[in-house]
From TrEMBL:
It comes from Mycolicibacterium cosmeticum. One of its GO terms (cellular component) is cytosol. Keywords: Oxidoreductase. This is Pyridoxamine 5'-phosphate oxidase family protein. It holds the Pfam family PNPOx_N. Residues 25-151 form the Pyridoxamine 5'-phosphate oxidase N-terminal domain. GO terms for molecular function: coenzyme F420 binding; oxidoreductase activity, acting on the CH-CH group of donors. The keyword Isomerase does not apply. The keyword Oxidoreductase applies. It comes from the Bacteria. InterPro entries: F420H2_bilvrd_red/Heme_oxyg, Pyridox_Oxase_N, Split_barrel_FMN-bd.
Amino acid sequence: MIGREYAPSAAMLPASMSRPLGEAQREEFLAAKHVGVLSVAATDGRPPASVPIWYDYTPDGLIRINTGTASRKVRLIRQAGAVTLVVQREEPPYQYVVVEGSVVDTIEPAPRDVREAIAIRYLGEEGGRAFVEGMKDKPSVLFLVRPDRWITADFSD
């Protein structure tokens, strides 16, 4: 297992409210299509930068994040070398996974096949390919994130 597991203590949540996801449940949850919220430490006393983002979770346990290079988010990720990704189910039964991870590789430009895989995950085959084609002249970067710590909750019965 990559990363440390953390579950809220009984003092934090009543036992009847939630339980942690098991490793297999967590992997299945991350492999499903969810828009994540990526947070990265900011500089100059500003709060962390948090943005919605598409991601991909690979069978070897890495999180792949592709984005354009001309953003504050990219500059901050390069500086911090670490991110937090929050992925949640927004309808009952609620579930969430929080991943605190280290950036283990940065690939620039992001390979087209990876950009397509991520876009197809969210937009389907035709929409994903069209999206990537429309972005072909825009510089992109791929961050590979290794999970270091997990926080999970499952609010189902």
